[in-house]
């Protein structure tokens, strides 16, 4: 049985199950072994056999001897890159190509190995694939029938780096595909060319720095991966920890893994069937994290004199009670022989005094709070009050004091402790965009943070100041960046209470060019050592709470990054429409229409498709089923590229973004329908042709199909002549604008015309190429 308790597996399992960081699988030939696909060694042997068949006759003694010698050298060379280099030269292009294809074509009819299907069940951002067999792509088609998969080869990586921001998954066939010989990477020259390509290196570095990689189906002495790993080790950059599933236990594997920052997850393969690989995946897929509670908190003070009897302490001034109890709690927390139970016993013994500790005033001289001087109350919420205060050194701070009843409610108290621990983690890592944490106490339950000058997001939106797409996208993408950063920390901090009142716009009124988005109140957040209990309860739930925070569904946990996906989705809904969502509104049949109406309230941008794309982002983030929501990196990536498109349309490199924008700017004023599975927009012009515009990310092209079908009511004689003339006219329009027409079909009752254009041409001549589509569609209107 697979050992599920090894530390490296536990760490990776938490990342994958919590969805706190996007995962990419890097796959080697071992995954394809069950399908009996020839290994690289097997391909070498097949090429050697082909070389033997091409041995010159005895009449050409010199050439014969040279051929035999080179064939022998290729057969015995330990470096397969060199062996393939030799074989490609002596076989010739045609024999070399056909021999490899013949051996690999068996993959087309072979059953897809189970491991590939299990990879897609993990919902990875993509696969870096070293195999030419196509199993990774076929497995995606089985798991997601009808959905488009972005695919490209290793030598095309430079022009596809933008897909790392796309919410759609990809397969990067690093060593090529069977069908495209120009993409193959088998020889020494080919691997050197690939690894020296700056665009490729940037793509791989971006994957390593922004995602968590799991290496599968390869070993340390696997020649196909060895050159990649050697290249990575020379970069000299700390990309964080990645993981390698292997059955190898030798020291060389350990040495290589440590050198390049990869943690080994080991399994046994005594049977030779690698059955524990499936167990590895199944353990992750069924896993629900179980964690510990956070410790009590207190503000250390020098007042550590003996405590009087409970009744005597209760009669002292409130702040003296606070100072004394915090001093003793702090002492207990650092005493090795004491436990958290000792803290609970102390609080129970002095229960009346603890109750008195909640007496708080902003009126001097009773406005002291454990060394802070309260100036005014600046906020009040469901869980407590917020005060502006002054430190002994004269600094302004904000102090949030939770209601007294929290101390008698264990799950709420644990939530407070969890939040304090999370804020400490964020402050220790100096995460930009969160309010620096200073101190916290449980007598009373309070947290001290830096004071932030500026409105919260709710105030800014309701005042009408967030009134354009640039502001909407800047605020939304900044929120996403902050939360993604917190998720990516080793402790994997989640927020779990994202809402407009927990987001501040620091300096929004006073610093128009340099204001900042700041996220508050990680009080409901969860991190690696947190308990599976939320402060939020059904009675206090609202539209920003994910469904699983109120009622638990099968296989769902509140300790998931998908909770924050829901919160940010609803927050963006509020930013656009200015209305708070109602709890469970995402289940209403008119939810899609409500989202679109909210997005339509923002004045039009030069990028016309923004309202539709943001509406789909909100809907994808607020799915009722946790497993169906977008991850935070998907949300952040989409927001970033939409903001870039809105600011500079010429910077867009995505074929599907361009395709939808063409549809949004159609001259017929007809509403288009977007198909997220095929990445295409369709528009039906009354009495005319149906136009479909597709973004082909793999080929980096926008493809257009215009179809007209007779309704049966037209005059057949006129129709026959019109069809030919109309098709010729439409083709001419496309050609003059720069489109390449690739296919035309015409019969007595219908006509279809297909055209395409490279995205670089579209970026350069967007208006001209876009106008041609609608002119061609109009030409095909009978």
UniProtKB/TrEMBL annotation:
Binding site for ATP: 400
Keywords for this protein: ATP-binding, Nucleotide-binding
Membrane in keyword set: no
One Pfam family hit: SIR2_2
InterPro entries: Kinase-like_dom_sf (IPR011009), Prot_kinase_dom (IPR000719), Protein_kinase_ATP_BS (IPR017441), Ser/Thr_Kinases-Pseudokinases (IPR051681), Tyr_kinase_AS (IPR008266), Tyr_kinase_cat_dom (IPR020635)
MF term (GO), any: ATP binding
GO BP annotations listed: necroptotic signaling pathway
Record-given protein name: Protein kinase domain-containing protein
Organism: Corallococcus macrosporus DSM 14697
């Amino acid at each position: 049985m697979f050992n599920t308790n090894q530390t490296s597996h536990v760490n990776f399992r938490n990342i994958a199950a919590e969805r706190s960081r996007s995962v990419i699988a890097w796959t080697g030939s071992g995954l394809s072994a069950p399908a009996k696909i020839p290994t690289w060694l097997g391909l070498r042997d097949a090429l050697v056999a082909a070389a033997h068949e091409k041995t010159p006759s005895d009449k050409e003694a010199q050439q014969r001897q040279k051929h035999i010698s080179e064939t022998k050298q290729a057969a015995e060379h330990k470096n397969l890159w060199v062996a393939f280099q030799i074989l490609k030269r002596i076989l010739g292009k045609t024999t070399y190509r056909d021999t490899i294809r013949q051996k690999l074509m068996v993959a087309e009819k072979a059953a897809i190995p189970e491991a590939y299907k299990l990879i897609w069940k993990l919902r990875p951002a993509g696969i870096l694939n070293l195999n030419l067999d196509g199993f990774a792509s076929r497995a995606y088609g089985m798991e997601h029938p009808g959905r488009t998969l972005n695919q490209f080869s290793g030598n095309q990586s430079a022009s596809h780096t933008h897909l790392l921001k796309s919410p759609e998954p990809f397969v990067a066939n690093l060593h090529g595909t069977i069908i495209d010989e120009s993409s193959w990477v088998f020889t020494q020259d080919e691997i050197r060319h690939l690894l020296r390509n700056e665009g490729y290196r940037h793509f791989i570095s971006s994957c390593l720095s922004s995602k968590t990689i799991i290496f599968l189906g390869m070993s340390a002495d696997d020649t196909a991966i060895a050159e990649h790993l050697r290249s990575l080790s020379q970069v000299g950059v700390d990309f964080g920890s990645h993981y390698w599933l292997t059955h190898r236990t030798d020291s060389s594997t350990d040495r290589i893994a440590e050198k390049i920052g990869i943690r080994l997850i080991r399994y046994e393969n005594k049977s030779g069937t690698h059955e524990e690989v499936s167990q590895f995946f199944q353990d992750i897929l069924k896993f629900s994290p179980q964690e510990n509670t956070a410790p009590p908190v207190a503000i250390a003070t020098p007042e550590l004199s003996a405590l009087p009897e409970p009744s005597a302490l209760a009669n002292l001034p409130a702040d003296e009670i606070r100072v004394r109890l915090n001093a003793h709690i702090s002492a207990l927390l650092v005493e090795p022989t004491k436990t958290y139970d000792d803290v609970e016993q102390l609080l129970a013994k002095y229960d009346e005094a603890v109750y008195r500790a909640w007496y708080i005033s902003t009126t001097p001289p009773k406005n002291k709070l454990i060394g802070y001087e309260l100036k005014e109350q600046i906020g009040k919420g469901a869980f407590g009050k917020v005060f502006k205060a002054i430190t002994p050194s004269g600094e302004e701070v904000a102090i949030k004091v939770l209601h007294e009843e929290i101390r008698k409610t264990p799950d709420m108290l644990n939530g407070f402790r969890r939040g304090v621990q999370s804020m400490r983690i964020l402050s220790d890592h100096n995460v930009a965009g969160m309010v620096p944490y200073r101190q916290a106490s449980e007598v009373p339950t309070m947290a001290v943070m830096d004071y932030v000058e500026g409105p919260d997001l709710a105030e800014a939106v309701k005042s009408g100041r967030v009134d354009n797409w640039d502001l909407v996208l800047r605020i939304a993408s900044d929120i996403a960046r902050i939360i993604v950063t917190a998720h990516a920390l080793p402790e994997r901090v989640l927020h779990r209470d994202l809402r407009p009142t927990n987001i501040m716009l620091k300096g929004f009124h006073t610093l128009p060019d340099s204001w900042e988005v700041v996220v508050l109140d990680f009080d409901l957040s969860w991190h690696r050592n947190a308990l599976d209990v939320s402060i939020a309860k059904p009675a206090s739930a609202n539209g920003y709470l994910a469904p699983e925070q109120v009622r638990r569904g099968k296989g769902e946990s509140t300790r998931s990054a998908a909770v924050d996906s829901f919160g940010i989705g609803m927050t963006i809904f509020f930013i656009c429409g200015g209305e708070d969502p109602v709890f469970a509104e995402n289940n209403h049949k008119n939810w899609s229409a409500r989202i679109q109406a909210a997005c339509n309230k923002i004045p039009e941008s030069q990028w016309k498709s923004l309202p539709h794309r943001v509406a789909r982002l909100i809907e994808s983030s607020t799915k009722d089923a946790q497993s169906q929501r977008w991850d935070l990196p998907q949300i952040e990536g989409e927001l970033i590229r939409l903001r870039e498109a809105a600011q500079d349309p010429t910077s867009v490199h995505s074929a599907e973004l361009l395709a939808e924008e063409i549809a949004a700017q159609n001259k017929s004023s007809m509403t288009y329908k977007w198909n997220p599975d095929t990445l295409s927009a369709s528009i039906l012009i009354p009495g005319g042709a149906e136009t479909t515009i597709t973004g082909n990310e793999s080929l980096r092209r926008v493809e257009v199909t215009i179809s007209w079908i007779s309704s049966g009511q037209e005059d057949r004689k006129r129709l026959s002549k019109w069809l030919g003339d109309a098709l010729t006219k439409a083709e001419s329009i496309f050609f003059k604008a720069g489109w390449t027409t690739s296919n035309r079909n015409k019969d007595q009752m219908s006509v279809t015309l297909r055209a395409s254009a490279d995205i670089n041409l579209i970026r350069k001549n967007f208006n001209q190429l876009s106008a041609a589509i609608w002119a061609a569609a109009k030409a095909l209107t009978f």
